[in-house]
Write a structure and sequence with these properties.
heterodimer; A: mainly alpha; 9 helices; 0% strand; elongated; B: mainly alpha
């Protein structure tokens, strides 16, 4: 079972590294969206420091959501997903491997690049540190919840718009607690509460989301 | 015992039986709903005393509060019937869930609109980012997502199962979303929350409120059964008993 998990993880990572745009596009998108806000609102330091945490988080959320297509789409089209459903290994484990790979491909680069964007938005050093921690706890949640939505729409031709309608409302708790944690650490307040919530929510999603995703995939591939 | 109960449920859930029985129940629900809604409206709009703080404009709660209750109640109904459909493969539960969605969305919309109309004189703004209003808005998004997913999948049985999963995921998330919004709100703007804390309601206002709430429930019961009957007729259109009814 562990072998199946790690082999699938390695396969997905290898595939992603052969299509580098899969890794780079969400990252570029993330950077560009954040860049739009100073242009659209104001380049003033106070304004940007005030809205920065929220903007960086909204951009991360959108980048993660828009990259969900790569999670199941190509495997659905060439039939790999169907074989996975038929395999002897428990489906939630295989799904989890795919979600972890997806997070490593799309979530992790965002975390690496976030200090740069934090600096551009005039966040303090503590706030940037908090931003990285919240992204580390929060982006896996986005991949896990997003997988459920993606599994529901994978068989549809135009699922993109629908996916955002399904998934974005469920992302709200992550957005609230993460951007609030970053804002609070800017103000020098304690952020342990927010981080505990994010950690708890992550464990919750880690346990249940793969099961819900496999149920949804079984419906979609019927 | 368990076997007898399951047998009864399956029998009741057979489309033919459901069609017959619901035809008998609907008039009861509809008439009772009409009586309760008329009585509740008269009591709420004319007889209940004027609120000492809000004057007459508080009277919108007799629509607003029952609508908000219904919006949550119907989502629960959808999730529970979705779970029943997934576990016991009772097709009727799918029909009930999908018939409920537009009604629930309508109640959610009604709760938002009445809340906004009430908010204008009370808060001086059509919209405030109050925790309850925001949660209600997110609930509306969940309903819209549900209906969008349902209409996007062509095969009705696959659509029903996908929607059941979505409703269950949504219902698990609703409390998490609600409490995170509430927590977010208390951190950002405490004042509106205390404004919302109602003083405990007087019995003369509680009676019309409960009449309206019960009337709304029965109205929902009648409408959901009507919608479900229509769907049953469409899905069973090739069976003999349907042909006999249609003639």
């Amino acid at each position: 079972m562990y072998n199946a998990f790690f082999n699938l993880l390695k396969r997905d990572l290898r595939l992603a590294f052969r299509h580098k745009s899969e890794i780079l596009n969400p990252l570029f998108f993330f950077v560009i969206v954040v860049t739009l806000f100073p242009l659209g609102i104001s380049p003033e330091k106070q304004v940007l420091a005030e809205i920065g945490p929220g903007i960086i988080w909204v951009a991360a959320l959108l980048a993660s959501m828009l990259s969900l297509d790569s999670l199941f789409r190509s495997d659905f089209e060439d039939g790999t997903l169907e074989l996975m459903l038929l395999s002897e290994y428990p489906l939630p484990i295989l799904i989890l491997a795919k979600i972890v790979a997806h997070w490593l491909i799309t979530g992790f680069p965002i975390i690496i690049f976030s200090p740069l964007l934090g600096t551009v938005m005039f966040l303090s050093n503590e706030a940037i540190e908090t931003l990285m921690i919240t992204l580390l706890l929060g982006t896996p949640i986005l991949s896990l919840i997003g997988a459920i939505g993606m599994a529901l729409v994978v068989a549809l031709k135009r699922g993109g718009m629908l996916l955002s309608l399904l998934v974005l409302p469920l992302y709200i708790p992550v957005l609230i607690f993460s951007s609030n944690a970053v804002g609070s650490s800017m103000a020098g307040l304690s952020i342990s509460g927010q981080l505990y919530f994010l950690a708890a929510f992550l464990i919750f999603c880690l346990t249940l989301a793969p099961i819900a995703t496999s149920a949804a995939l079984r419906v979609s591939l019927e | 015992m368990m076997k007898a109960i399951m047998k009864f449920i399956y029998q009741f859930a057979s489309p033919k039986h459901f069609y017959r029985l619901s035809g008998k129940i609907i008039p009861w629900f509809a008439w009772l709903a009409a009586i309760l809604l008329i009585a509740g409206s008269i009591d709420g709009l004319f007889i209940a005393p004027v609120d000492y703080q809000q004057g007459d404009s508080y009277r919108i709660i007799f629509i607003h509060v029952p609508a908000a209750w219904m919006s949550m109640f119907i989502y629960m109904v959808m999730a529970i019937s979705g779970a029943i459909a997934l576990i016991w493969k009772i097709k009727l539960a799918d029909v009930i869930a999908s018939s409920s969605a537009p009604i629930g969305a309508a109640f959610t919309f009604l709760a938002l609109v009445t809340g906004s109309i009430w908010g204008k004189p009370m808060w001086g703004a059509w919209w405030v980012w109050d925790a309850r209003l925001t949660s209600e808005l997110i609930l509306l998004f969940l309903y819209l997502g549900y209906m969008a997913l349902e209409s996007a999948i062509e095969d009705p049985r696959a659509a029903a199962r996908a929607c059941a999963i979505l409703a269950i995921v949504g219902v698990i998330n609703i409390p998490i979303i609600h409490y995170s919004v509430e927590w977010w709100n208390t951190l950002h703007q405490g004042a509106t929350v205390t404004k919302l804390d109602k003083p405990s309601i007087h019995i003369s206002m509680l009676i019309p409120l409960l009449l309206m709430a019960l009337g709304f429930k029965l109205y929902y019961g009648a409408v959901v059964l009507m919608r479900a009957r229509n769907k049953v007729l469409v899905t069973e259109q090739n069976n003999r008993w349907v042909k006999e009814i249609i003639g």
